[in-house]
Amino acid sequence: MNGLLAAVRLALRAIVRSKLRAALTVLGILIGVAAVVVVVALGTGVRNQILGELSGLGANSIYIFPQSTQASGLKRRDSARLSEADGAAILEESISVAELSPFSSTSMQIVAGEANVATQVMGVTRSYFSILSYTVDEGEGWTEADEQLKTKVCVIGETVRENLFGAGEAVGQYIRIGKHPFRVIGVLTKKGQSPFGEDQDDRLLMPIGSFRSRVVPSAPGKVQMLIAAATSELTVDRAVAQIEGILRQRHEIAPEDEPDFVIRTQAEFRASQEQILGTLTMLLSSIAAVSLLVGGIGVMNIMLVSVTERTREIGIRMAIGASEDDILVQFLVEAITLSVIGGVMGLGVGLGLIQILAGALGWSMTLPPSAIVVAVGTSAAIGIVFGFFPARRAARLDPIQALRHE
Question: Which InterPro entries does the annotation name (predicted)?
């Protein structure tokens, strides 16, 4: 223990004697550690941001789409197979489905006074709001009677309100979709962009019966998609299995045949996003780790120069009884000390940059405690790995030759 403390004292003295050289060595490690720390925190912040937004889209939501099927070797598209009757059957027969909304949409020009904008017009039922966590900020939503009577009413997003009415009152105003006037009865609470880059406020919602009758005339009950909500996140898989069984039975599809529908869940979107983000974070961390490698090479180069300059000192220490192990430990501790100082300083700089980025981006960026330990441990490991060769070279010097060195 005394020998280790003595090695630390000698290392600190050597660092103080060559301040500029030590500072340049520390700088390489500092930049590398700071880069890795910021990249890890940035990846964590992006992940939390996107997963939070996905949760806002309904963590237990399930999407049922029609898809092409194959019959007698020929491709046929049967996109009209999904219907409101299918949705009603799922709600009645599935114990793991809490809510369900039929869904159809199209892009349309809508007009209010002299304003004319394109937006996504969607036909849904009232369940859509709770399934995807939409709330009405101004006015109100439509009633069950509005759905049954196909009333010409609608609820608009904040982006649509700004484009059509500016800062003015929207509730109670009339807008024209095609040749039909619709009364605005509510404005949705602002949600911003989705994780997929979609403006969640650039939409107009109306009862699906009104949509089929007046916006996109289509067969009664026909829908483009069904959106369901499981009773909880834990029952999503069970709900999917029940939905598949119900639709196969209703559409008379044998178990071995390809279904004419496809089911996707928010959990699948979430897993896909996590995989992409994990890969991206690993790639960026690998790039940042290159700077750590460069810093490590800098440590090795500086230590080799130090060994050359202090060859006579090494010879004197050996002459008065220092063993090879003593010399090895002395230079190894010096390399580790330089690396740890750089690592701690890099961690401090990285934490400062994280706070600046978090304020600028408005994200919650935190560095896991494990990442702090890894950052400091990695810097120490760099000192050991890149300091070992110079230390071993110093330890293997011939004492006589070392004393003769000028």
Answer: ABC3_permease_C, MacB_PCD, Macrolide_Exporter_MacB
